[in-house]
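hi! just following up on the protien thing from before. the input was this:
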Amino acid sequence: MVWKSSVEIGYGAAVREYNNYYPVYCTYDYFPEGTGDDEASAENVLK
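and the predicted 3d structure came back as:
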């Protein structure tokens, strides 16, 4: 998947790229050190 290549760049960039392709998935499961904004938005989508 595309987001894996972005992990080398950094969690923040990878989370944002991942959200662009899969906005409905909860990204904090894959990026535990991601930014709070990305985690919060992902949780809100699932709710």
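DSSP finds three helices and no strands in the chain.
The two ends are 25 Å apart (CA to CA).
cheers
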